[in-house]
């Protein structure tokens, strides 16, 4: 069973590992090794989100991004706030304007996230099972066929976000 930080059951979510306490993602999202989810086929495709966790008390095995205040009642979109330099920073749910500058909603501070990779066999990728059979050109082709478009879409969205931000 998966829960949101508020303790409410997260229906339609799947644990991202067999561990007792682990992150969960919506069945239509991709589990990542950093505890976050990548949205696919939703209103905001290829964006990050913090979903749920199997630990109802939301301990250290659960993703700690966007669990405070209003963000903890359900899943939470994680939006790119600033990209470039040494690190990309993110905001929970929304970016607003404060004193003429961009700011995270609810006066929350921008944060960084750790790198992660997709977990096969879980949530959206539940029918995809990783094999230990060495090199397989078909698997490489499928991985490239899925990974390259996702990367292009992410970079396009990032470029658009930076363009929109500079217009302000």
TrEMBL record:
Membrane-spanning intervals of the chain: 140-163
Protein name: Uncharacterized protein
Keyword Transmembrane helix annotated: yes
Sorted UniProt keywords: Membrane, Transmembrane, Transmembrane helix
